[in-house]
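Hello forum,

I keep getting stuck at the same step: I have a sequence, I want structure tokens, and every attempt I make locally crashes halfway through. Rather than fight my setup again tonight, could one of you with a working pipeline run this one for me? It's a single chain of 318 residues.
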Amino acid sequence: MVFGLMAFFHVIKATFLVYFSIPTVLVYVIGYILIYKEKLYGYVVMVYCWLTLYMGVTTICLGYGYGFHLYCMSMIPIIFYTGYMARSIDGKPIHAIVASVVIVAFYLATTLIPTFRGPIYTSDTGADTLFWIVNSIIVFSFLIFYTYVMIKGITDSEDKLKALAMKDNLTGLYNRHYILKQLETTSGKNDEYFVAMADIDDFKKVNDTYGHNAGDYILKTVAEIMREACDNVLVSRWGGEEFLVLGYDKNKAQEKMEKIRSSINKYNFTFEEKSIKVSVTIGIAERSEADTIDKWIQVADDRLYNGKTSGKNRVIFK
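Reply #2:
Ran it on my machine without issues. Output:
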């Protein structure tokens, strides 16, 4: 592109622009080296200073007709995105607002000159219209691309933050905060909903005997089994070794929770070539058995306690 511009400048006898374009080649070469060495800050400062200068000089020499002044519009959003990238790579801040103000000020200064004094070089080749179209397409392509990239980055970050806010980091299940919000949505609806409180039996003994890494393995594996054992239920980690399940169709609650209990009881838990026997006790409560969310959960928790004191590894419903 640079050599093509140099050839065109030579054709219209814009000698100064021919020689002025030569350092641009050097800027690209140095820029490649800086990017290769992950020196993004130095690259940005060099390229933006040169592009701003190049935009201004070509506008003064050729006027508005060629559209070189349009590049300032694409440079501003790019500098904000580049500032974010620079912080992510090497931690050096790029002051995007300051750079934008400088670009706008330089743009105003350099575009006013041909307005009052006219361009230094003129040509009757008709190439100004072609250049204006090409430069406009390039500028708007930059604007569209970087706007898309920035918005996508924002939405992706929001999605990640939402996922972090809703999910338990260890098990990948929904967390207590999320399940409480879902429980609130059942208020005032029919009584087909049920909750089930599940607790891993003798989990402290597992941690004491095999270590906390083994405990984490048990928690993650139990979570995976619970998630896959039943459809149409919402499984969450309530805290510690406890899990809360929200489901619909209370008539199948016992069957669904028994499937979870049986699946965990039959699973071959093996950590560091050591087989670990794992079971869960589950207490179930219907929505109609309590007038508040707290009481609803408490009913399930009480039945879980009854299951613990009556032998463990069982499902208690009513």
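Residues 127-166 form the longest helix (40 residues). If your local run keeps crashing, start a new thread with the error log.
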